[in-house]
Amino acid sequence: MKIHSKRDAKLLLILAVIITIGLYFRVQDFSHNVDGSHIFRQTMMTSNIFHFIENGISLTTKLFTKNHTHKIFDFPIYQQLVTGIIVLFELEIVQAGRALNIFIYVLTTLVLYKILVFLDLKRQLIFIVLFLFSLSPLGIFYSRALIPDNLPVLLGFLSLFYFLKWDLLKSNKIYHYTGMTATGILAALIKNPIYLPIVIAIIMYLAFNRRWKQLLSPAIITFLTTILMTVIFFRLYSNYVNQGDPFLSATWEHYWYFSNMQDRMNPLHYFALIKQYFRDVVPPPFLFFAIVGIFIYQKNYNNQSKYLFLGLLLGSIITILIFFNVMRRHNYYWIPYIFITCFFTGCCIDWFYSSLQGWLTKKTSRYRLMRWNQELLCKTIIPRSMILVFISLTVLLSYRFTITRVEQHWQINAGMMINQNTPLNAMVIYVVSNDAGWDPSYLYYARREGYNVSSSGLTVTFLEEKLNEVKTSNFYLFIPKIYPIANQHVLQEFHTRLVAESSDGILLKFMKDVLGHPPN
Fold it and tell me: For residue 403, what pLDDT is reported?
């Protein structure tokens, strides 16, 4: 980015300050173990990364939990990048993942800045939008969480930026078209619901600017077809990798992603979506500003980029309505909507700020005593005081509403106990709650392979089956204190020895299994 004047240098300084404020929130507890919301998803990523380091990069998921069924949810580009960072810089998994997330945050902010500047929007509006974007509670939390969703968001906005340059500039057409398509393919591979609003925004931008000829041009048709084929390819590849997965039944998949008509007709589910949006995407008071900002933008902005932002809004709403069920269950699906929410919030705040300046100028001109310092008062003192109040309020609200991390203290401690008291080749049966299923978090913290089993599922038949299947003498059983065994008589069928005990649970070793392996 070339700096042509002192004014440009000042703008870049403001941008750097905004990014730095966002970084301050994101580096908190940088080395802390994986924790917080959606621990299932996070430990699935980190387990996958661990096995990439140990066994080499793969296109499928390998976990410590051997009874997991679903082997791929999204294309593992994010995991591969984190693995590369670990190899190059010798960082821990959580450090490497958070370092990548922070880098993605900085790049995303810069790309959004370039888009807004390229569209020649007011500098004041640009910085309000980016300031809100940097302090989104959802954005802050998922810059710490090890999930891949931030990466396709960056790639999606890069694709949008390349599209605008391809559409509006006469030079480097092939380069910009290739960039738009390549980043779109990568975003759709990792998580296609994240890229859908971008596609809808591009279509709406061309359609409402009366570019029907360009919308139906070979270039756009090829682009849209390529993205569609990418989605189909990933679906076929996922089905191939996950053969035999009971989750892949048409009924299950349809409900999981799209829900059913009964759920869609329930107004309580929509209230839950609105509540989640209020709490997570932006600090709650700003959501009202976003709604007002939509009408202000519609009325006051008439440039050709108008339908781009309205297209992002429409695309976000359509995506939410399509993927209704997962939107209710997983708040990381809301990450793509942070920017468009902050944009319309910024439109409202910018309009209010500018209107107040004009109103103050008109009012003070009536009073002789205030005429001499009218410019100082209305253009310097009051506006800058308002800026300070706005910044302080936003920072305080971000502190207040940033998603609370639910720390997995007992799981982390239990995992450390298992890790310290078992050999590397140990096989661990981990007793979990009846609804935990193959949650990878339990054995991830232990860094040992094994099986999850509910307390009611811990039967003689189950133990005999696993002991025969694995054929090892290093077989252990961990029983958390919070999940007492319902079938205590089961343990009497096997010769076990107490290895370790803590306030989190007990670790037992099978001294003689059904195959007659001698103990080590």
Answer: 59
**Termini Cα distance of the chain:** 64
> Three-state SS across 1-22?
CCCCCHHHHHHHHHHHHHHHHH
Q: Which two tokens stand for residue 13?
A: 């300084």
Residue 211 and residue 168 in contact, taking contact as beta carbons nearer than 8 Å: no
pLDDT band at 443 (very low <50, low <70, confident <90, very high): very high
Residue 44 and residue 47: Cα distance in Å, rounded?
A: 5
The answer to whether residue 363 scores a pLDDT higher than 70 is no
The predicted-structure confidence for 136-149, as pLDDT tens digits, reads as follows 888 988 988 999 99
Q: What are the backbone angles phi and psi of residue 193, rounded to the nearest 5°? A: -60, -25
52 band by pLDDT with thresholds 50, 70 and 90: very high
Mean per-residue pLDDT, 6-27: 85
Residue 305 CB neighbours (<10 A)? 20
Pairing, β 449-454 against β 495-502: unpaired
Q: What single-letter DSSP state applies at residue 65?
A: B
CA 453 to CA 464: how far, in whole Å?
14
* For range 189-207, the mean pLDDT: 94
Rounded mean pLDDT of the chain? Answer: 83
Sign of the four-CA dihedral 337, 339, 341, 343:
negative
Concatenating the DSSP letter of every residue in 132-195 gives HHHT-HHHHHHHHS--STHHHHHHHHHHHHHHHHHHH-SS-HHHHHHHHHHHHHHHHHHHHHHH
Cite the DSSP H helix spans in 173-283: 173-208, 212-215, 218-241, 250-258, 261-264, 267-280
Q: Are 128 and 350 in contact (CB under 8 A)?
A: yes
DSSP per-residue letters across 14-62: HHHHHHHHHHHHHTTTTTPPS-SS-HHHHHHHHHHHHHHHHH---SS--
Q: Does residue 264 register a pLDDT over 90? A: no
β-sheet bridge partners, residue 428: 450, 476
Handedness of CA 253, 256, 259, 263 (dihedral sign): positive
Residues ≥6 apart with Cβ < 8 Å to 185: 226, 227, 230
Global pTM reads 0.88
Of residues 211, 96, 99, the one with CA closest to residue 163:
211
Report d(CA 494, CA 422) in Å as an integer.
Answer: 19
Measured at the CA of 311, the angle between CA 307 and CA 312, to 5 degrees, comes to 125
Contact between 210 and 168 under an 8 Å Cβ cutoff? The reply is no
Question: CA angle 179-184-190, nearest 5°?
Answer: 130
From 315-329, 346-360, 430-444, 448-462, the region with the lowest mean pLDDT? 346-360
Q: Say how far apart CA 398 and CA 138 lie, in whole Å.
A: 10
